[in-house]
Amino acid sequence: MPPRLFPKYLNQNHPKMLTGLILLLLAGLISCAREAVPVIKAPAGERKESSAPSGYERQLARLVNEERDRRRLSTLAFSPLLARVAENHSRDMVRQRFFSHTNPEGLGTEERINRAGYLWRAYGENIGCGQDAPEKIMAAWMKSSSHRGNILSPSYSEIGIGFVTGGECRYYWTGLFARPLK
User: Fold this and answer.
1) CA distance 170 to 91
2) For the purposes of burial, counting CB atoms within 10 Å of the CB of 157, is it exposed (0-12), middle (13-18) or buried (19 or more)?
3) Over the chain (182 residues), what is each successive 10-residue block's mean pLDDT?
4) 79 Cβ contact list (under 8 Å, min separation 6)
5) What is the pLDDT at residue 182?
6) How far is CA 16 from the centre of its chain?
7) 150: exposed, middle or buried (C-beta count within 10 Å: 0-12, 13-18, 19+)?
8) Which of 40, 60, 65, 79 could cross-link 158 (Cys pair, CB 3.0–4.6 Å)?
9) pLDDT value at position 15?
10) Which of 170, 150, 169 is nearest to 160 (CA)?
11) Strand partners, 180
């Protein structure tokens, strides 16, 4: 005989009572949830739905490391956490129709990295829009002293790239460079 999970009075003879108990338990579980996690769906025009690096993101990270190699700088390790923060920023620029390191609500690079739980010693961010290939955004960044400075800084040990299509510029890039506290 299997073990009895409910008292005898909650058997088939009282289905309304059993249904009520199940609903009560579900309501309790829902109210005990720590915090609801919103589901964010990307607009149909956006290219990707995950923070796994796309071919373009891997290519750009490779180009950055090749440039660092030529200068005898250490290569940057790919950080899935930085990539997720970078991708979210690129997606935010498409959704909210802006192009800046700071979103319309005033959230900047430091706040985004901190909110993601990345404990950093140093960080830098490059953004770009309009370039449809990794080689093009890399060339644009290397022509800019501040962007080139992030790419070639010995202060960083990790990289995360976020590439999203859509919006006015059609192609949005965010590159995050950082060194964790460790």
Assistant:
1) 11
2) middle
3) 40 51 42 31 39 78 98 97 98 97 97 97 98 98 98 98 96 98 87
4) 118, 158, 159, 160, 176, 178
5) 81
6) 46
7) buried
8) 79
9) 56
10) 150
11) 120
111 CB-side CA count, 13 A: 8
Report pLDDT for 51.
42
Instruction: Give the span between the Cα atoms of 6 and 18, in whole angstroms.
Output: 9
pLDDT, position 53 = 53
Task: Please give the Cα distance from 113 to 111 (Å, whole number).
Answer: 6
Residue 24 confidence (pLDDT): 42
pTM of the model: 0.71
Contacts of 51 (CB under 8 A, 6+ apart): 80, 83, 84, 87, 162
Tokens in use for 180? 């964790």
Contacts 24+ apart (CB under 8 A), 153-157: 153/122, 153/124, 153/177, 154/73, 154/74, 155/121, 155/122, 155/124, 155/179, 156/76, 156/122, 156/123, 156/124, 157/74, 157/76, 157/77
* Contact between residue 164 and residue 87 where contact means Cβ atoms under 8 Å apart: yes
